[in-house]
Design goal:
53% helix; alpha/beta; 9 helices; five-stranded parallel β-sheet; 215 residues; single chain
Length: 215
């Protein structure tokens, strides 16, 4: 995922601009950055694009994208293997730490404690943190108050579902990236009937292209 592949519109403009700005002023602007929205609206795309952009600008910088589930699993495995110090060193020496789907911390007290301390170390060192979830920090069940407070320190940006015109633009962009020439009326028909998220839009486009090629 890259910023060039991301379609910007009213529903995601703030989140996109914030990610771009963070890449230019790592650790000093919007630290931390918290992006939230329903599943399939482009949060993962933006987070991975930010990692790619930071490393493109300066290959010496250490940036890591990880899902919250993977972070928790690695944390548990590090405890079991007696490698907790190495795990912490790896996470806390990064210039950019990106954690996707942070709502996975729900009901995980030890993992919340670990992320709390990792957050503090990175923030105090002027390192950048970007997080995402399906809801704002205060709406994540069983998330400790001090984590909610930390996650609200920087900028909290919401991504909303795209309107019809933006869904059309996304379909045109995805078709172009796949080298497919889809008539405007077909694009509009898909955009009209698939409203909930971008992932379903892509799925409908993929099926259309596959059936056309196989037919």
């Amino acid at each position: 995922y890259t910023f060039d592949q991301f379609v910007v519109g009213p529903s995601n403009r703030l989140a996109h601009a914030a990610c771009g700005a963070v890449c230019n002023q790592l650790g000093t602007l919007y630290n931390q950055l918290f992006i939230h929205g329903s599943s399939g609206l482009g949060k993962t795309h933006l987070l991975q694009a930010a990692c790619a952009e930071v490393q493109r600008k300066d290959a010496r910088l250490q940036a890591a994208y990880v899902t919250c589930e993977a972070f928790v699993n690695d944390f548990v495995q590090a405890i079991a293997a007696g490698q907790l110090h190495a795990f912490r060193e790896c996470a806390r020496q990064l210039d950019l730490l990106v954690i996707d789907d942070i709502q996975f911390l729900e009901n995980r007290e030890s993992s919340q404690e670990e992320i709390f301390h990792t957050f503090n170390v990175l923030h105090q060192s002027g390192k950048q943190i970007i997080l995402s979830a399906d809801s704002p920090p205060s709406d994540i069940p069983t998330l400790r108050d001090r984590l909610v407070s930390r996650f609200n320190w920087g900028l909290v940006a919401q991504i909303d579902p795209p309107n019809r015109e933006m869904r059309q633009a996304i379909l045109h962009k995805k078709a172009q990236l796949r080298g497919a020439d889809i008539p405007d009326e077909i694009i509009d028909l898909i955009a009209e009937h698939v409203e909930s998220n971008i992932r379903l839009l892509e799925g409908a486009l993929t099926r259309l292209i596959s059936e056309t090629q196989l037919g």
